[in-house]
Amino acid sequence: MKDRVLKALAILLLLGIIFIVILVQGLIYTGSVSLLGINYESLWVLITFVGLLIISETIFFFSIYQIPKSLYSLDLIPSSVKNLLDICIIYTISFLFIVFLDQVMHSISVPFWTKVLFPFVSLFLNCVLVGDDADVPDESEKLNDEILNKIENCLSSKSVFETVKMIKKEYPEISLVVIKKTVDKVHKDMV
C-alpha cells in the first residue's frame, strides 16, 4: 500500500511539473494557453474544470464501482469479467463527464480526440492509486486440512451445492465465495 502511495505521489509530481512547464511555455511563446488541445480562457477556468471533473468522477466512481465487486462477491461473474467491467466503468465515467463539462462550460473547449484519450489517463491513475486485488492472498489456500478433509468426505456422498451449504453452516466466518471456490477446486481434483 505504501509503495502505491509513493508511486502515485511521484507520478502526480511529474505531471505537475509537466503541466507547469507547458503552461509557462504557452504563456510566454503564444500568448494563449492550450494544454492537450483543451482551450480555455483563464487558468481559473481550467482549475474549475479539473476540480469538477475529479469531484464528479469520485462521487460516481465509488457508487457505480461497487456493482462489479458485488456481482463478483456473489459469485455471479468471474474475475476476468469483473476486471473488464471495472475498466469499462472507469473509462465511461471519465468520458461522459468530460463531454458533459465541455458542453456546460462555455469558456472551455475540448477537442474530440482529447475526450477520447483523456479517460485513459484517469484509467491509468486509477490502476496506480486503487490497484487491483491481485496482491491480496487467496483465502482458499489458508483453509486448514481439517476443512479440506470435510469437503472431500462430503463430496463423496453429496453434491457440490449441498457440500457448500454444509460447510457454510459449520464455518460461518468463512466467506461463501471462498468456500465455493475451494469446493469447486477439490471437486475438480477428485474428478
Description:
Residues 28-33 and 133-140 have low confidence and may be disordered. The chain has helices at residues 2-29, 43-64, 66-73, 79-104, 112-129, 145-157, 160-170, 176-190; strands at residues 34-35, 38-40, 108-109. It has a 3-stranded antiparallel beta sheet. The protein has 2 domains: 2-135, no CATH class; 139-190. The protein contains 8 helices and 3 strands, in the order H-E-E-H-H-H-E-H-H-H-H. By secondary structure, the chain is mainly α. Keywords: Membrane, Transmembrane, Transmembrane helix. It holds the Pfam family YrvL.
Number of helical regions: 8
Oligomerization state = single chain
What Rg do the Cα atoms give?
A: 24 Å
C-alpha end-to-end distance: 40 Å
Structural class given helices, strands, pairing?
mainly alpha
Profile the largest sheet: 3 strands, antiparallel
| Arrangement of strands in the largest sheet | 1-2-3
Key attributes of the depicted protein:
191 residues, mainly alpha, 2 domains, 8 helices, 4% strand
Could you provide a short overview of the structure?
The chain has 191 residues and is mainly alpha-helical.
Any chance you could write out the topology, listing elements then pairs?
Elements: H1 2-29, E1 34-35, E2 38-40, H2 43-64, H3 66-73, H4 79-104, E3 108-109, H5 112-129, H6 145-157, H7 160-170, H8 176-190
Antiparallel strand pairs: 1-2, 2-3
Helix pairs in contact: 2-4, 3-4, 4-5, 6-7, 6-8, 7-8
